[in-house]
Amino acid sequence: MKATISIKATVSYTLATASIALFSYSAHAEDQSHVRLATTTSTYHSGLLDYLLPEFEKDTGYKVDVIAAGTGKSLKMGENGDVDLVMTHAPKAEANFVEKGYGVLPRKLMYNDFVLVGPQADPAKIAQQKNVAEAFKQIASANATFVSRGDDSGTHKKELGIWAQTKMEPNFTGYRSVGQGMGPTLNMASEMQGYTMTDRGTWLAYNNKLDLKILVQGDKNLFNPYQVILVNPERYPTINYNGAKVFSDWLVNTRGQELINSFKLNGKQLFVANANEK
């Protein structure tokens, strides 16, 4: 008897879940005034989207629903047709996303850079190091604490790329992979007095609350470009492609680019618009 009840409950739950999903799917197909954006935590935590979206909504009437999940998860949502466009910062993963037919109309949007931050005491002695890969080697050799996002984000992908350049595996005792966004990762690094790599925008948004400082910056390997890519409407006909394209057009044209350049925190520019660069 218990087995029968369990089976019925499971069937009822499955049908209810399917009904909710169908309702959500239908509601989105009918409501074309909303655009679903999957993006990195850096555009969210830095405050950039809070700055841009009210202006876009005022200019166009579209409402943008933001899911800040990191580059890997954002691209996966695009692959599944769960969003209308993505704003990410991992060039190789983005190229793969487009090549496989999930994304269309990839456009340069803006850039900033990554920085390597750590404790004032700098136990790995990397403060004078100009080469970020060499700084990573020193941290591993010193078995110092390094806090990695570990979340398949653009920042995490960049970090793993740098470890690959060192030809060292990040498996030393001090390495901590936390599976968190940039803000929580910075807080953990500060609490543990460890090193971490962060995009400059999130650093500027958080640094006044942290007991850390920038130790390595300026290496060309730390360049951090962002793109905006539409989800392919041929693969997912019900997405709001028209609204997504309006948003993409707005971002890469004069209005959006000027606003990106004018966004500052504590008097410092966080992103540089580059849609018009060849």
Automatic annotation (TrEMBL):
Q: Where is the signal peptide?
A: 1-29
- Give the keywords, sorted: Signal
Record-annotated PBP domain positions: 36-253
What PANTHER family does the record point to? EXTRACELLULAR TUNGSTATE BINDING PROTEIN
Protein name (Swiss-Prot/TrEMBL): Substrate-binding domain-containing protein
